[in-house]
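Z., the sequence and structure:
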Amino acid sequence: MPSAIALVAFAFGVHDLTPGRTAPWIHGLLIAAVAVVALAVASMAATLAPDARRRTLAIGVASVALLAPPSGYVQLGLVVAGAIVGRFFLGDVRRDASARAHDAPSLEKPVRGIDTRVALASGITFAILIVGLPIAERFVNVGPFVAFARFFEVGGLVFGGGHVVLPLLQAQVVTPGWVPDANFLAGYGAAQAVPGPLFTFAAYLGAAMQRGPVHGIGGAAICLAAIFLPSFLMLAAVLPFWDRIRRNAAAGAALLGVNAAVVGLLLAALYSPVWVTAVRSTGDVALVLAALLALAVWRAPPWTVVLGCAVVTGTFAH
Protein backbone atom coordinates (compact mmCIF):
# COMPACT_ATOMS: atom_id res chain seq x y z
CA MET A 1 0.00 0.00 0.00
CA PRO A 2 2.76 2.58 0.68
CA SER A 3 4.14 1.94 -2.80
CA ALA A 4 0.72 2.11 -4.44
CA ILE A 5 -0.24 5.32 -2.63
CA ALA A 6 3.03 7.01 -3.57
CA LEU A 7 2.66 6.03 -7.22
CA VAL A 8 -0.95 7.19 -7.38
CA ALA A 9 0.11 10.56 -5.95
CA PHE A 10 2.83 10.74 -8.60
CA ALA A 11 0.29 9.89 -11.32
CA PHE A 12 -1.77 13.00 -10.53
CA GLY A 13 1.21 15.23 -11.30
CA VAL A 14 2.99 13.33 -14.04
CA HIS A 15 0.94 14.81 -16.89
CA ASP A 16 2.19 18.28 -15.95
CA LEU A 17 5.72 17.03 -15.36
CA THR A 18 6.09 15.26 -18.70
CA PRO A 19 3.84 16.84 -21.33
CA GLY A 20 4.80 14.69 -24.31
CA ARG A 21 8.39 13.85 -23.37
CA THR A 22 10.40 12.26 -20.59
CA ALA A 23 11.87 14.81 -18.17
CA PRO A 24 15.67 14.59 -17.65
CA TRP A 25 15.42 13.63 -13.98
CA ILE A 26 12.94 10.85 -14.85
CA HIS A 27 15.52 9.56 -17.34
CA GLY A 28 17.80 9.19 -14.33
CA LEU A 29 15.22 6.97 -12.62
CA LEU A 30 15.20 4.73 -15.70
CA ILE A 31 19.00 4.49 -15.64
CA ALA A 32 18.87 3.48 -11.98
CA ALA A 33 16.40 0.75 -12.96
CA VAL A 34 19.04 -0.79 -15.23
CA ALA A 35 21.41 -1.18 -12.30
CA VAL A 36 18.69 -2.47 -9.98
CA VAL A 37 17.50 -5.10 -12.46
CA ALA A 38 21.05 -6.13 -13.42
CA LEU A 39 21.85 -6.75 -9.78
CA ALA A 40 18.63 -8.72 -9.37
CA VAL A 41 19.48 -10.88 -12.40
CA ALA A 42 22.95 -11.61 -11.03
CA SER A 43 21.59 -12.48 -7.58
CA MET A 44 18.84 -14.73 -8.95
CA ALA A 45 21.24 -16.43 -11.37
CA ALA A 46 23.65 -17.23 -8.56
CA THR A 47 20.85 -18.86 -6.56
CA LEU A 48 18.52 -20.33 -9.18
CA ALA A 49 20.91 -21.04 -12.07
CA PRO A 50 24.25 -21.87 -10.46
CA ASP A 51 25.36 -24.66 -12.83
CA ALA A 52 25.99 -24.97 -16.57
CA ARG A 53 22.72 -26.72 -17.46
CA ARG A 54 20.47 -24.24 -15.68
CA ARG A 55 22.42 -21.28 -17.04
CA THR A 56 22.07 -22.70 -20.53
CA LEU A 57 18.33 -23.06 -19.97
CA ALA A 58 18.08 -19.48 -18.67
CA ILE A 59 19.96 -18.04 -21.66
CA GLY A 60 17.87 -20.10 -24.07
CA VAL A 61 14.66 -18.80 -22.49
CA ALA A 62 15.98 -15.23 -22.61
CA SER A 63 16.83 -15.58 -26.31
CA VAL A 64 13.37 -16.88 -27.22
CA ALA A 65 11.67 -14.21 -25.10
CA LEU A 66 13.59 -11.46 -26.91
CA LEU A 67 12.81 -12.85 -30.36
CA ALA A 68 9.11 -13.53 -29.70
CA PRO A 69 6.47 -10.78 -29.49
CA PRO A 70 5.61 -9.65 -25.94
CA SER A 71 2.86 -11.97 -24.76
CA GLY A 72 1.86 -13.55 -21.49
CA TYR A 73 1.20 -16.79 -23.36
CA VAL A 74 4.78 -16.79 -24.68
CA GLN A 75 6.11 -16.32 -21.15
CA LEU A 76 3.81 -19.04 -19.85
CA GLY A 77 4.97 -21.38 -22.63
CA LEU A 78 8.61 -20.72 -21.75
CA VAL A 79 7.95 -21.47 -18.08
CA VAL A 80 6.23 -24.74 -19.04
CA ALA A 81 9.18 -25.58 -21.31
CA GLY A 82 11.51 -24.90 -18.39
CA ALA A 83 9.49 -27.27 -16.23
CA ILE A 84 9.72 -30.01 -18.89
CA VAL A 85 13.47 -29.55 -19.28
CA GLY A 86 13.89 -29.63 -15.52
CA ARG A 87 11.79 -32.76 -15.18
CA PHE A 88 13.90 -34.76 -17.65
CA PHE A 89 17.36 -33.19 -17.39
CA LEU A 90 17.74 -31.82 -13.84
CA GLY A 91 16.73 -34.86 -11.80
CA ASP A 92 20.28 -35.53 -10.59
CA VAL A 93 20.64 -31.88 -9.50
CA ARG A 94 17.44 -32.29 -7.51
CA ARG A 95 18.71 -35.47 -5.87
CA ASP A 96 21.98 -33.80 -4.84
CA ALA A 97 20.09 -30.85 -3.36
CA SER A 98 17.74 -33.19 -1.49
CA ALA A 99 20.69 -35.11 -0.05
CA ARG A 100 22.29 -31.93 1.25
CA ALA A 101 18.97 -30.77 2.70
CA HIS A 102 18.51 -34.15 4.41
CA ASP A 103 21.88 -33.82 6.14
CA ALA A 104 21.06 -30.33 7.41
CA PRO A 105 18.69 -29.62 10.30
CA SER A 106 15.20 -28.70 9.09
CA LEU A 107 13.78 -25.37 10.20
CA GLU A 108 10.60 -25.59 8.11
CA LYS A 109 7.18 -25.93 9.66
CA PRO A 110 4.26 -27.64 7.99
CA VAL A 111 1.96 -25.36 6.06
CA ARG A 112 -1.37 -24.87 7.80
CA GLY A 113 -4.27 -22.47 7.69
CA ILE A 114 -5.91 -23.07 4.30
CA ASP A 115 -8.54 -25.77 4.01
CA THR A 116 -8.40 -28.00 0.93
CA ARG A 117 -11.93 -26.90 0.00
CA VAL A 118 -10.78 -23.28 0.00
CA ALA A 119 -7.81 -24.29 -2.10
CA LEU A 120 -10.03 -26.08 -4.61
CA ALA A 121 -12.40 -23.10 -4.79
CA SER A 122 -9.45 -20.75 -5.36
CA GLY A 123 -8.08 -22.90 -8.16
CA ILE A 124 -11.45 -23.16 -9.87
CA THR A 125 -12.03 -19.41 -9.53
CA PHE A 126 -8.65 -18.66 -11.09
CA ALA A 127 -9.30 -21.05 -13.99
CA ILE A 128 -12.74 -19.55 -14.67
CA LEU A 129 -11.45 -15.97 -14.60
CA ILE A 130 -8.30 -16.49 -16.69
CA VAL A 131 -10.33 -18.23 -19.41
CA GLY A 132 -13.64 -16.42 -19.05
CA LEU A 133 -12.61 -12.77 -18.71
CA PRO A 134 -11.05 -12.41 -22.20
CA ILE A 135 -14.17 -13.99 -23.70
CA ALA A 136 -16.57 -11.87 -21.64
CA GLU A 137 -14.66 -8.70 -22.55
CA ARG A 138 -15.82 -9.11 -26.16
CA PHE A 139 -19.44 -8.76 -25.05
CA VAL A 140 -19.18 -6.48 -21.99
CA ASN A 141 -17.66 -3.18 -23.12
CA VAL A 142 -17.81 -1.50 -19.71
CA GLY A 143 -14.72 0.49 -18.73
CA PRO A 144 -14.00 -0.91 -15.24
CA PHE A 145 -14.68 -4.48 -16.42
CA VAL A 146 -12.33 -4.09 -19.40
CA ALA A 147 -9.54 -2.71 -17.18
CA PHE A 148 -10.04 -5.50 -14.62
CA ALA A 149 -9.94 -8.17 -17.34
CA ARG A 150 -6.75 -6.80 -18.94
CA PHE A 151 -4.82 -6.45 -15.69
CA PHE A 152 -6.03 -9.82 -14.37
CA GLU A 153 -4.71 -11.44 -17.55
CA VAL A 154 -1.32 -9.80 -17.08
CA GLY A 155 -1.13 -10.87 -13.43
CA GLY A 156 -2.23 -14.39 -14.27
CA LEU A 157 0.22 -15.03 -17.10
CA VAL A 158 3.42 -13.49 -15.74
CA PHE A 159 5.83 -15.72 -13.83
CA GLY A 160 8.73 -14.24 -11.91
CA GLY A 161 6.99 -10.91 -11.37
CA GLY A 162 8.96 -7.70 -11.17
CA HIS A 163 10.33 -6.29 -14.40
CA VAL A 164 9.16 -9.33 -16.38
CA VAL A 165 5.69 -7.74 -16.35
CA LEU A 166 6.75 -4.51 -18.08
CA PRO A 167 6.47 -5.59 -21.75
CA LEU A 168 2.94 -6.91 -21.15
CA LEU A 169 1.79 -3.80 -19.33
CA GLN A 170 3.27 -1.62 -22.06
CA ALA A 171 1.37 -3.59 -24.70
CA GLN A 172 -1.88 -3.34 -22.72
CA VAL A 173 -1.91 0.39 -21.94
CA VAL A 174 0.47 2.19 -24.35
CA THR A 175 -0.44 0.41 -27.60
CA PRO A 176 -4.20 1.20 -27.35
CA GLY A 177 -3.39 4.78 -26.28
CA TRP A 178 -4.65 4.54 -22.71
CA VAL A 179 -1.39 5.93 -21.30
CA PRO A 180 1.12 7.96 -23.38
CA ASP A 181 4.53 6.31 -23.70
CA ALA A 182 6.29 9.20 -21.93
CA ASN A 183 3.94 8.92 -18.96
CA PHE A 184 4.38 5.14 -18.87
CA LEU A 185 8.16 5.55 -18.68
CA ALA A 186 7.82 8.27 -16.07
CA GLY A 187 5.77 5.99 -13.81
CA TYR A 188 8.14 3.09 -14.40
CA GLY A 189 11.04 5.30 -13.38
CA ALA A 190 9.22 6.51 -10.28
CA ALA A 191 8.48 2.90 -9.30
CA GLN A 192 12.22 2.41 -8.75
CA ALA A 193 12.18 4.95 -5.93
CA VAL A 194 9.40 3.44 -3.82
CA PRO A 195 9.34 0.30 -1.67
CA GLY A 196 7.32 -2.78 -2.45
CA PRO A 197 6.83 -4.96 -5.53
CA LEU A 198 6.79 -3.55 -9.05
CA PHE A 199 3.24 -4.88 -9.51
CA THR A 200 2.10 -1.74 -7.65
CA PHE A 201 2.97 0.05 -10.90
CA ALA A 202 -0.55 -1.04 -11.89
CA ALA A 203 -1.97 1.49 -9.43
CA TYR A 204 -0.07 4.27 -11.18
CA LEU A 205 -1.32 3.14 -14.59
CA GLY A 206 -4.93 2.96 -13.41
CA ALA A 207 -4.72 6.50 -12.06
CA ALA A 208 -2.75 7.96 -14.98
CA MET A 209 -4.97 6.78 -17.86
CA GLN A 210 -6.08 9.75 -19.96
CA ARG A 211 -8.15 7.98 -22.64
CA GLY A 212 -8.48 4.60 -20.96
CA PRO A 213 -11.46 2.78 -19.51
CA VAL A 214 -10.72 3.97 -15.95
CA HIS A 215 -8.84 6.77 -14.25
CA GLY A 216 -8.13 8.34 -10.90
CA ILE A 217 -8.26 6.62 -7.52
CA GLY A 218 -11.01 4.24 -8.64
CA GLY A 219 -8.99 3.17 -11.65
CA ALA A 220 -5.92 2.65 -9.46
CA ALA A 221 -7.88 0.40 -7.07
CA ILE A 222 -9.34 -1.70 -9.92
CA CYS A 223 -6.02 -2.24 -11.70
CA LEU A 224 -4.12 -2.93 -8.47
CA ALA A 225 -6.66 -5.52 -7.28
CA ALA A 226 -6.83 -7.16 -10.71
CA ILE A 227 -3.09 -7.64 -11.14
CA PHE A 228 -2.56 -9.08 -7.64
CA LEU A 229 -5.66 -11.29 -7.47
CA PRO A 230 -4.28 -14.14 -9.65
CA SER A 231 -1.28 -14.56 -7.36
CA PHE A 232 -3.48 -14.78 -4.27
CA LEU A 233 -5.77 -17.32 -5.91
CA MET A 234 -2.92 -19.51 -7.20
CA LEU A 235 -1.07 -19.39 -3.90
CA ALA A 236 -4.19 -20.37 -1.95
CA ALA A 237 -4.84 -23.21 -4.42
CA VAL A 238 -1.33 -24.68 -4.08
CA LEU A 239 -0.39 -23.97 -0.46
CA PRO A 240 -2.07 -26.94 1.29
CA PHE A 241 -0.31 -29.33 -1.11
CA TRP A 242 3.04 -27.57 -1.22
CA ASP A 243 4.91 -29.93 1.11
CA ARG A 244 3.92 -32.93 -0.98
CA ILE A 245 4.84 -31.16 -4.21
CA ARG A 246 8.19 -30.06 -2.81
CA ARG A 247 9.08 -33.58 -1.68
CA ASN A 248 8.09 -35.17 -4.99
CA ALA A 249 11.28 -35.81 -6.97
CA ALA A 250 9.76 -35.17 -10.40
CA ALA A 251 7.99 -31.98 -9.27
CA GLY A 252 11.15 -30.77 -7.54
CA ALA A 253 13.20 -31.23 -10.71
CA ALA A 254 10.52 -29.42 -12.73
CA LEU A 255 10.62 -26.51 -10.27
CA LEU A 256 14.37 -26.22 -10.78
CA GLY A 257 13.67 -25.76 -14.49
CA VAL A 258 10.92 -23.22 -13.78
CA ASN A 259 13.28 -21.18 -11.59
CA ALA A 260 15.96 -21.17 -14.29
CA ALA A 261 13.35 -20.09 -16.87
CA VAL A 262 12.32 -17.19 -14.63
CA VAL A 263 15.96 -16.05 -14.52
CA GLY A 264 15.92 -16.10 -18.32
CA LEU A 265 12.75 -14.03 -18.49
CA LEU A 266 14.22 -11.43 -16.14
CA LEU A 267 17.41 -11.38 -18.21
CA ALA A 268 15.32 -10.65 -21.32
CA ALA A 269 13.47 -7.89 -19.47
CA LEU A 270 16.82 -6.37 -18.47
CA TYR A 271 17.50 -5.72 -22.15
CA SER A 272 13.96 -4.93 -23.30
CA PRO A 273 12.35 -2.76 -22.10
CA VAL A 274 14.74 -1.77 -19.27
CA TRP A 275 18.03 -1.18 -21.15
CA VAL A 276 16.59 0.00 -24.48
CA THR A 277 14.39 2.64 -22.85
CA ALA A 278 17.07 4.00 -20.50
CA VAL A 279 20.51 3.85 -22.12
CA ARG A 280 20.96 6.32 -24.96
CA SER A 281 24.62 7.35 -24.76
CA THR A 282 28.03 6.46 -23.36
CA GLY A 283 27.30 8.83 -20.49
CA ASP A 284 24.27 6.73 -19.60
CA VAL A 285 26.45 3.60 -19.60
CA ALA A 286 28.89 5.31 -17.26
CA LEU A 287 26.06 6.26 -14.90
CA VAL A 288 24.75 2.67 -14.95
CA LEU A 289 28.22 1.43 -13.97
CA ALA A 290 28.40 3.98 -11.15
CA ALA A 291 24.98 2.90 -9.89
CA LEU A 292 26.05 -0.77 -10.00
CA LEU A 293 29.20 0.11 -8.04
CA ALA A 294 27.13 1.87 -5.39
CA LEU A 295 24.63 -0.98 -5.09
CA ALA A 296 26.88 -4.04 -5.37
CA VAL A 297 30.15 -2.87 -3.83
CA TRP A 298 29.24 -0.09 -1.42
CA ARG A 299 25.85 -1.60 -0.51
CA ALA A 300 24.11 1.76 -0.80
CA PRO A 301 20.33 1.73 -0.17
CA PRO A 302 18.53 1.52 -3.55
CA TRP A 303 16.50 4.68 -2.93
CA THR A 304 19.69 6.73 -2.53
CA VAL A 305 21.04 5.37 -5.82
CA VAL A 306 17.76 6.14 -7.58
CA LEU A 307 17.75 9.67 -6.16
CA GLY A 308 21.39 10.17 -7.13
CA CYS A 309 20.79 9.13 -10.73
CA ALA A 310 17.81 11.49 -10.96
CA VAL A 311 19.87 14.40 -9.61
CA VAL A 312 22.75 13.70 -12.02
CA THR A 313 20.60 13.53 -15.15
CA GLY A 314 18.47 16.46 -14.05
CA THR A 315 21.52 18.60 -13.37
CA PHE A 316 23.63 17.80 -16.43
CA ALA A 317 20.86 17.44 -19.04
CA HIS A 318 21.46 19.38 -22.24
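Residues 103-107 have pLDDT under 50 and may be disordered. The chain has one domain: 2-99+111-316.

Let me know what you think.
H.
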